[in-house]
Amino acid sequence: MQQLIHRIWYQNHWAKWLLLPLSWLFALISAIRRMLFRFNIKQANHLPVPVIVVGNITAGGSGKTPTVIYLIELLRQQGYRPGVISRGYGVDIQGCLVVNTGAKACAVGDEPAMIVARTQVPMVVGAKRIDAATLLLANFDVDVIICDDGLQHYALARDIEIALVDGDRRYGNQWLIPAGPLREGLWRLNSVDFVINNGGPAHSNEVLMSLTPAPLIQVDNTLTEKFDSQNAIVAMAAIGNPQRFFNTLSQLGYKIANAVEFTDHQAFEPAQLHVLSKAHPLVMTEKDAVKCRDFAQSHWWFLPVNAKLTPEFDQALLSQLQSVAQTKKGLSHGI
Fold it and tell me: Name one GO biological process term (predicted).
């Protein structure tokens, strides 16, 4: 199903015309919802600390998680104490949950589990971001909140908006869901503070981000083996753009015997991965690895990647953040 959707969105498949009426309905509902917030019929909730929203206007992956990790590290280097909130996509969360180190992806979501495993940042997940943020502030000493996804979650007031775009696929056919990948029209990019292009080529109004791969790491973290680069591998990915991952492995010189795509955020059964890895080592993304830690075999590996952005972006973001923080300092409700 995911492959069919991608053909409709990114390869001009004729089925988009069948879905167009549903896109019109989606556009109407979205417009009404935005108007309710614009005219204060629905109230956006302001927080006493700066809020940075990292999102996109397309469905599917575009590099939000590496960007969030980059921001956590950047802010810490500048003396800030960031915390993160997220919906916890793909899991049924009642209320809000604190994401502890070692949290299972099936309980909190794969991306939150990965972010905390990598950074140990204070993090809370919940369907209502304002409730997650309230719990985060009540339990941790944070002075900046990063919202992982949520560009369209207008109930949470935000101070800085960052939109990601996949440099390979960009905005597809530029139609709204479900006939196209857009959650909102391209006009929405005119109101965000930064547009980050994952992979390039970047347009004049975009900040180029590259993902730098690191050496493979064993999923079970036993460190009992060293990967033999002469081995052919089976590559697997359950992310928004699996082909980007497969291309990266090929560019790094790995010999891919088989490349297997799964639906984004899909949970795995141990048996299916054991079958995949019978003949060759299994290599996956870091986001997928957090779902496999409890049953991983020693010849399963993941490829960490680190985001790299420009010094100009760092300076502009930190300058804007400092201005927001000074404005909010001492104000009980951040307004």
Answer: lipid A biosynthetic process
CA 260, distance to chain mean position in Å, is 21
The pair of structure tokens assigned to 156 is 């949470």
Q: Is 58 annotated as a binding residue?
A: yes
Dist. CA 102–CA 238, nearest whole Å: 20
d(CA 261, CA 30): 31
* Model pTM score: 0.91
Q: Is 63 annotated to bind ligand?
A: yes
Residue 60 is labelled as binding a ligand: yes
Q: How many CB atoms lie within 10 A of CB 271?
A: 9
222 annotated as a binding-site residue: no
How many other CB atoms sit within 10 Å of the CB of residue 34? 15
Give tens-digit pLDDT for 232-267.
999 999 888 888 899 999 999 999 999 999 888 788
Torsion over CA of 272, 277, 282 and 285, rounded to 10 degrees? 0
Task: Determine the pLDDT at residue 152.
Answer: 93
59 is in an annotated binding site: yes
Q: Is 65 annotated as a binding residue?
A: yes
**In which residue are the tokens 């990063």 written?**
146
Determine phi and psi for 173, rounding to 5 degrees: -80, 0
Residue 248 assigned as binding residue? no
What residue ranges of the chain have pLDDT lower than 70? 222-224, 330-335
Q: How far apart are CA 133 and CA 129, in angstroms?
A: 6
And the tokens for 45? Answer: 């909730």
